[in-house]
Amino acid sequence: MVANASHHALLPQELIRLKRDGEPLPLEEIEAFVQGIADDRISDAQIGAFTMAVFLNGMSREEVVALTTATRDSGHVMQWDSLNLPGPIVDKHSTGGVGDLVSLVLGPWVAACGAFVPMISGRGLGHTGGTLDKLESIPGYNPYPAPERFSKVVKSTGVAIIGQTGNLAPADKRIYGVRDVTATVESIPLITASILGKKLASGLDALVMDVKVGSGAFMPTPEKSRELAKSIANVATQAGTPTTALLTDMSQPLAPCAGNAVEIVETLALLRGERPDSRVMQVTRELAVEMLMAGKLVASREEALAKLEKALTSGAAADVFARMVHELGGPADFMERSEHYLATAPVIQAVYPEQSGIVQCIDTRAVGMSVVELGGGRLRNDASVDHSVGFSEIAEVGDRVDNQRPLAIVHARSEDAAARAAAQLRDAVTLGDAPATADTLLQDTFRGEA
Ligand code: URA
């Protein structure tokens, strides 16, 4: 949709003034403003003033829906109708975490159950890992296929996990860049429209959202996480894409590993059906159930669980992953010979605690930052990533650690880097004598209200 500014009554500064003064915004004016951002008719200064006004005064639900749909429609919106896919188009998005390899298992798993998943993933951001960085541990994997190839892979395998390309929600690219340097990132209306503006441009029938809570979460408090989950579920649903948001625990790494290749190794084990009751699989399964139900592939939770169980134990989910990897340029025998392809770090060492004890809690953000410092993530968005580094076998809350059972295994480029990461990990893990239990994994479910 191309809006012509001349059809609209308000100048950008008048729209900004309304929000500055706490007045309601005419919804069609939001659309014109966002289109003006995509067309470069609105300046960075105007974007900054607008986002600060929203930061301070908030937005009504209707305003957030309008901002979301305008962001979605500011660039190319994918259409799947012409492919006549025999199943629903569904996707998942997460606010990001540490050891959060959910997408890598979830996409192939629900695809093996009949869903189609055109997943646009991101790179690591801050302390969180990125699905795309992890996939690029696989030699040859091309996360930027031509659009026709992307459609073809989604159609033939049921899932393709790729990176964001040029014309997807271009208004968000500008808005986010300005928010980053104007202290206006932490606004629930703006976060909602930013995430959904991009995600809904994939032309989805249904979406599930994994909003994290805890020391490794993007949102600073449980209350804010909850507010974001509710906002996303309702706004996406009102924008026409039925959405459920789960609130899940990120007070410790979700899988017992954090890094790139190490998380791919774990993904393969999980897809082979090993550790089906691990915390990461519990979260993945809950999201999968919501996707199958929202996509109307099943009539009940029980039916969803049965279908998922079969897709895992039969090897169908693993097979979908293997085919996706190969279709996107990776080795045909990656699943069978992954150790032949994945980079391994020159230094691999156990990190023992200074004293024995039971893991009470983990500063998950610090663990993520330690992986970044090892070279597994980036501090600048143009930096490259070392796929081989990270932590594996990370102890969980409630585990006893001592001079036999380490806190983790560190994978590093050098002895020095390993020693630094080991010290950071010891600082990040609080030990005590008392038994400790992990926080509840699935803390809440918000089904969007239309
Ligand atoms: N991720 C996004 O894409 N946008 C935000 O505003 C915050 C997180």
From TrEMBL:
Provide the catalytic activity annotation: thymidine + phosphate = 2-deoxy-alpha-D-ribose 1-phosphate + thymine
State the pathway, as annotated in the record. Answer: Pyrimidine metabolism; dTMP biosynthesis via salvage pathway; dTMP from thymine: step 1/2
Give the function comment from the record. Answer: The enzymes which catalyze the reversible phosphorolysis of pyrimidine nucleosides are involved in the degradation of these compounds and in their utilization as carbon and energy sources, or in the rescue of pyrimidine bases for nucleotide synthesis.
Q: What is its EC number?
A: 2.4.2.4
Q: Where do transmembrane segments lie in this chain?
A: none
Organism domain of life: Bacteria
**Keyword annotations:** Glycosyltransferase, Transferase
Q: What is this protein called?
A: Thymidine phosphorylase
The terms under GO molecular function for this entry are: thymidine phosphorylase activity
InterPro entries the record matches: Glycosyl_Trfase_fam3, Glycosyl_Trfase_fam3_N_dom, Glycosyl_Trfase_fam3_N_dom_sf, Nuc_phospho_transferase, PYNP-like_C_sf, PYNP_C, Pyrmidine_PPas_bac/euk, Pyrmidine_PPase_CS
Q: What is the protein's species of origin?
A: Halomonas llamarensis
Family that this chain belongs to: Belongs to the thymidine/pyrimidine-nucleoside phosphorylase family.
